[in-house]
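Before going further, learn to read the protein records used in this course. The integers have meaning only within a learned vocabulary of local backbone shapes. The record below shows the convention in full.
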Amino acid sequence: MTEGKYQSPLGEGVEYETVAGFASLTCNANIESVVLANSLCNRYGLDTISTSSVIAFAMEAFERGLIGAEHTGGIDLRFGNADAIIGMIEKIAHRRDIGDTLAEGVREAARRIGKDTEAFAIHVKGLEVPYHDPRAFFSMAVNYATANRGACHLEALTYWNGYAPHLPDLGYPETIPYHESNAGQAKMAYDHQNYFSVYNPLGLCKFIAKAKIGPQRLTEIVNGALDWNWTTEDVLTVGERLFQLKRLINLRLGVTSADDMLPHRLTAEPRPSGHAAGVVPDLEVMLPAYYQLRDWDERGTPRRARLRALGLV
């Protein structure tokens, strides 16, 4: 942006999550400010999902009267205020005023502020929720609740199925109804988590799956590049081994089945409009089916026989 009050240097383009967070979520109609917000976060090393989410959290707290100008350093932190968004990014980066608290994320910010702000602190296991609403894609509700990093869309990317990049060799040759709380949604999350778990350690971009790169084609890529002899079954077995190992690490750090949840707003407050109007995911139906697929007990702990079969014990 070379003109106006929101000028920013040449940098990367603004991708979906950033627009959704710094525009829609914060009710900000000024796209130039979104470009600057993106530039600031990139240069400060701030994640745009978490940063926009924690600013939206603070805006709701401000409008509810739970924090005031004395906390924000004089910033009128109301929804739609582009100047306030830019100013709060600076405060978070430099830990000034309430920015020092917001820099810790919505879970810790809600704990410090108190005053029932936990009710609208939207996170799973401390990680802010990306902008693929689990009320729109119920398989994402299962993924967010169980993903090892917390609410991370990249651990499954099942919402892609609703947009038609189908993966026949993963078992999904067509679009699955996404507003049904059933075992099929649990299996979809399970299968996609196992598949996408291999991408990061292989150094592959998960977006190649948008070109319908499923386990079969991935096997050809890996074997051709590394002279391995993987089969499609190997891809999914290695993916499950990685996922279960991360779960074991989380369990050692104190995670239990009680942490496999979504915030109240995403399970009890339906969207008022759009294709997902009036519906919410039912984790009480889907999580038991997911636990059965993973072979986890009621506390969310993998059973020893499954770990032995995966070579983890």
